[in-house]
Amino acid sequence: MDVLVIEDDQSVRVLVRAVLEKNGNSVAQADNAAEGQELAFNNEYDIIILDLGLPDGNGYDICKNIRDQDITTPVLILSAEQETDVKVKCLKVGADDYLTKPFNPEELMARVEAITRRSTDASGEQVLNCGELQVKLLEREFYVDGTEVDLTNNEFNLLVYLLKNKNRIISQEEIAEKVWDIHFDTQTNYINVYISYLRKKIRDHTENDYIETVRKKGFVLRCED
């Protein structure tokens, strides 16, 4: 894999690079926001590992700018912050996962592999269907009644999980853990926000309601096929 590491702490950067290269990956690196963003804009990577605190900017803005350029490369955030609201903010700007410093090198590699595996999903089913909804996993494309609909990485990953568990009620706790690998905080509404995003994008192309809210239990994607 080709990996971009944007991290200003030299010791962390050296460790991350060593772990990645030991596992056969090619690594490009930047120690500031400007250089890192330029590399992300002008090159193709399989994953971007991004520090939140940089001398000339922050990871939130870089991640948002990357997504604003329609770059769908998975982003793994590194940060010493452990608060749930920080992790939620990262997800909201388009990050795919979050790893707290200090971290175990084996966990870093496991998360990188898990994120890229979710991104490609090359094993098992390649197409998921539910009525007018169709997801092509390899291409990471979503269609409603034959019309392609743009989704963010987080929206896509959430939809795939719902489709793979169609007709089953899924709690917010399960979604938080299985889709984003974080503990669900009852004081936040980010899962409801992403469900709302998905509903709107689906309803823009069909009158059918697919995602149902089950009071005090969670959500279910209803499919008859």
From TrEMBL:
Residues 125-223 form the OmpR/PhoB-type domain. The modification 4-aspartylphosphate is found at residue 51. CDD domains: trans_reg_C. Pfam families: Response_reg, Trans_reg_C. Residues 125-223 bind DNA. GO terms for molecular function: phosphorelay response regulator activity; transcription cis-regulatory region binding. Coiled coil: none annotated. It comes from the Bacteria. SUPFAM superfamilies: CheY-like (SSF52172). Signal peptide: none annotated. Keywords: DNA-binding, Phosphoprotein, Transcription, Transcription regulation, Two-component regulatory system. One of its GO terms (biological process) is regulation of DNA-templated transcription. Residues 2-116 form the Response regulatory domain. One of its GO terms (cellular component) is cytosol. PANTHER family: REGULATOR OF RPOS. This is Response regulator transcription factor.
